Predict the structure of Xylanolytic transcriptional activator regulatory domain-containing protein.
Amino acid sequence: MGFSPGNSQLHHEPLDRDMEYSYNDPNQVGPGHSTRNDPQSELMGRHPSMEYMDDHPISPDVDSLQQLGAITSPASQPVQRIRSLDLIEGSIAQFYGMSSESDPWLLRHCRYDEYGMRSMHRTQIRNVGGVPVDGLVPVHFLETERDLMLPQSPEMDTCSRKDTMHYRNELDAMVSPTHGERLLSLFLRFVFPAIPIISRSQLGICSSVSTAALEKIPVHLLAAIYASATPFAVHDPVLCISAAYGELLCDKLWGMVYELILKETHTPKLAVLQASLLYLQQIPAGSLEALPDGPFIWSFLGSTVALAVSLGIHVEPRPWGIPPWEKRLRRRLWWAVYVEDKWRSLLTGRPSFIHPEEFDIFELSANDFIQDEKPQEHDLDCQPFFYYGTGLARIVENLHRTFYTIKASQRLSDDFRASIDAARPIRAQLQQWYLSLPDNLRLKRSSGGNSHPASNPVEGAADLHFSYLVLEMFLYRAILRPLARSPPPPPISDDTDPTSMGSSWLVEDLTFDRHVFDQLPLMNSMQLGEAEEATLKAAEKCAAIIVNFVGALVPHEFGSFWHPLSNFITLLLVQAPTRQHALRSKDLLDLWSHTLRYQHRSHESLMKLGLVRLNQMQIEGLENIFNLPAHVSDILRDKQHN
């Protein structure tokens, strides 16, 4: 079924309760998670095993546990007490996979203490407990003493001679605790809504930030928070007048973050994953502004996904015997990892690290954004943006799997009818997603281009709209592939075995905008030529909408945009089948060039890559880069002379 957001109101679940959990009966299916349901198809539905939990708050009394089928004999069945997986001093917890060296189906027969622990010399097996429900798998963690996991040779650990206090003092020297409180406040205001990867309940943050909250945050995560918030220092009356909060400080902070991530990866806790996610969000600086993601970022993302899986973040934690704040944090962390993986996979054209059958985290709800101190208040400033962003990422996965894997590209790149048929359900998902947005995520523009949100705009709403437009563009980019075939590539010579390779040339491209998009043609009611013409016009309209959207953005609406639109419009021009289409595409390319140069004045770091790509093509000349139809070459020549 894919992503299907339904109405614009987020569903609410009963609040998590601090409670005791019954052990599962060894003769029944143990606590844990479904292997029978694909979470892709369950995103907006309800999983049978979770229905009781969602509809009935679970109390610790025996009667409630008997209702759930968790125990058969109150006298003989002990209860398991709440205990954090992440806050146990001196040890780390690793998830036991279904085929790991210790069989989870064997481990469920072990005897555990009241906290679900079974000691095995210097390691312990942790049964996270929960409510046993048919269809779920047993979930266990291996808790190991931290010292056992440290590298044995100094060469393996470049930071081995530096202790935690050394790094804490070094960070305090760069950012005083007083300024640190202000940076954390800026983080919660500007960064947290887009990537809510810390727990305010765990840190004791209610209405304001205190030094005590800073002391609870591990150094690597605190440095990442400071670095993420530093670009927003202009919004703080104290920090904005300090020359210290600039690129130089950011570079030092990110350097410390990376150094400590490498050190702590040997003995990871949630803070290492949190810091890694923030590290992936840093805005490129210097020469990196003009380059796409390099191999390092992709490798680092793979390490981040692997770290999340090692920590068991990919497994639904709501039935577990851990604190409510930790359940909520784990669920948000997984979706942050998922969003990062799916978008970077699509934008770089590389295989995703996350397979839909290897996680069972269900959709976010209002309760995933509450604080223990204010259980009746749902953080609606944060919730809609991240919630709808995760829904859009599910469509990213569907689009990538349908059109942009190697096998899908081979199958569809020369089949226009099949491409249209494959695109139609994805287009329906995109339209349904957009219609589901609440008023505070909608952008209303006047004729002058200024934004007039319906009510209480959410910071970063423009990012969400632009992401939606990028997906529309990627959809047309895939549909356009069969419409124009390039000449075969020249033969590749080899001294020992001369051969020639003949294959269709795939022109890479991207970018796009939003409003009212044309419907995809119905192939059964149109001739092939008519359908191709309708598709080309719709793609041109799509490009025009994106150009206008970016041109109308005002400073407060800019975020972490990607700009592959130059390639998309160039593709329209290179593949233009007629002089009329070539004229439209060239005019669009000129308008896009003007838009990039105009917005580049105040948003250099966001616009530079797109502008560099376009300048490179314009300097060398499109006619010297591409094999162009005669009518396209004529258009370019005429434009140069005018």
Observations:
- The radius of gyration is 27 Å.
- The first strand starts at residue 21 and ends at 22.
- The chain has three domains: 21-149, 160-385, 437-487+505-641.
- The chain has 23 helices and eight strands.
